Known about the structure:
This protein is an all-alpha fold and 164 residues long. The chain has seven helices and no strands.
Amino acid sequence: MSETLEQSFVKQLKQNQNIVHKICRLYTTDSDAHNDLFQEITIQLWKAFPKFRGESKFSTWAYRVALNTAITLYRKNSRAVNTVTYEAQKHFFVQDEYNLEEEERIKLMYQAVQQLNDIEKALVFMYLEDKDYTEIAETLGISEVNARVKMNRIKGKLVKILNP
């Protein structure tokens, strides 16, 4: 028995939902905005899924769709995210809980990353996800050399932000 399109999508989303949650965390500051953005990214992923050809990994493709959605929505300088209702909300998942000490370190890092521009945020996110520069470059649509140079500059910015 072969999977339906919806079953395949739900399976892939389930395996890669942390990507979406982390992007939401980078581009939002409260849980309502996080949930709205998660829903909007899921909708955009679902709409684009029939065109996913498998030429790259699902995770790479999902990064690109999620980052583009987040950047597009938050460049509008709008606090409220207009979302489209998606009836399959049963497929949304809650991210894992962190221990308190780890949560504090993560919180400080996210506060520092919030001060970066949209492209820098995306690059840091993928770097922290242990993506190689080839995949980062492919996802962001820049050269591998450019990705490396940008990341080195961002590291310097983050050091200054975290250790003023």
